[in-house]
Specification:
317 residues, tRNA_Ile_lys_synt, 5-stranded antiparallel sheet, single chain, ligase, ATP binding, Uridine Diphospho-n-acetylenolpyruvylglucosamine Reductase, domain 3, Rossmann fold, 2 domains
Length: 317
């Protein structure tokens, strides 16, 4: 916790996002202990998703513990969860929107999240199953904007033991045991099988893999941005023009990231732009045989012309 807060200015407000579970309750307790000793202010936020009977009362119980932990302000954020993207994604979107709004209103310097090494391992396995590349395998960042995750190197067993030692009673969310949710199935079935068949330490190994993957992905992103600036010839009315000769000299991994970066800059929605689309554009660079333009999501097309690659709104869109 001290390491996570070390760069914050004196009297900065830090908020713990606390669901009442062992991970976030231990997080709130650690913040309440450490913050005043570092000259910081500490508060607590809990989100009521209104998805279960009695959720408002449970959220209030979490807030009621804040004073004992030395946390003020302490608030319940009540949200309405939509349906887009499935129940897990919709709840996450509503939760983060509420946390962001509260942090802005309270002028908080940071919001702490209680994700542990076990959560990181689950995230890596889910990313591996999706086959969505290095960035997906890098898991959750220890710090991303205002959000910080001090416990990513700690096990869930440690947070449970901490609550027991402090006399805190966590709330076990039934959703965390519901096999309808993919993450729950990974937690209850996949990880235990891996531990049984491969030996203990799988979660630690997956979390370590996430750290290394994140470092590599960050380095590739920096290289990609530099290469993009070097290859880009113009950006006129949203049309991106890249020099094919310079693209040809890049390693495959960097070149394809540059092409994805250019397509998004030209207006292609990142969520709809697949690896298949990027590979089709890549063939205009590496396997040029005079082929036609490549259609991309968002009504864009990629065309090779006079040694340049042009990504722009298709005239037929």
């Amino acid at each position: 916790m001290r390491e996570a807060l070390a760069d914050l200015p004196h009297e900065a407000l830090v908020l713990a996002a606390c669901s009442g579970g062992a991970d976030s309750l231990a997080l709130a307790a650690a913040l309440g202990f450490v913050a005043p000793r570092m000259g910081l202010r500490a508060g607590l936020l809990t989100v009521d998703h209104q998805l279960q009977p009695g959720s408002a009362e449970r959220a209030q119980q979490v807030v009621n513990q804040a004073a004992r932990l030395g946390l003020h302000p302490a608030e319940v954020l009540t949200v309405t969860v939509g349906t887009e993207g499935g129940p897990e994604a919709a709840a996450r979107e509503a939760r983060y929107a509420a946390l962001a709004a509260a942090a802005d209103r309270l002028r908080a310097a940071a919001v702490l999240l209680g994700h542990t090494r076990d959560d990181q391992a689950e995230t890596v396995l889910l990313g591996l199953a999706r086959g969505s590349g290095l960035r997906s395998l890098s898991g959750m960042a220890a710090q991303a904007g205002r959000y910080r995750r001090p416990f990513l190197d700690l096990s869930r067993a440690t947070t449970v033991a901490a609550c027991r030692a402090l006399g805190l009673t966590p709330w076990d969310d039934p959703h965390n045991e519901d096999p309808r949710y993919t993450r729950v199935r990974v937690r209850q079935k996949v990880l235990p099988v891996l531990e049984q068949e491969l030996g203990p330490g799988v979660a630690e190994a997956l979390a370590r893999t996430a750290r290394m993957a994140r470092e590599d992905a960050d380095a590739l992103d920096e290289w990609t941005e530099s290469a993009y600036q070097d290859c880009a010839l113009s950006d006129i009315d949203g049309a991106i023009t890249l020099a094919v000769k310079k693209l040809e000299n890049l390693p495959d991994a960097v070149r394809r990231r540059v092409l994805r970066r250019a397509a998004i800059a030209a207006g292609s929605p990142s969520g709809a732009l697949s690896a298949t689309h990027v590979l089709a554009v890549d063939r205009l660079v590496t396997r040029w045989r005079g082929q036609k333009a490549v259609d991309l999501p968002g009504g864009l097309s990629a065309t090779r012309r006079y040694g340049n690659l042009i990504l722009a709104i298709s005239p037929h869109a």
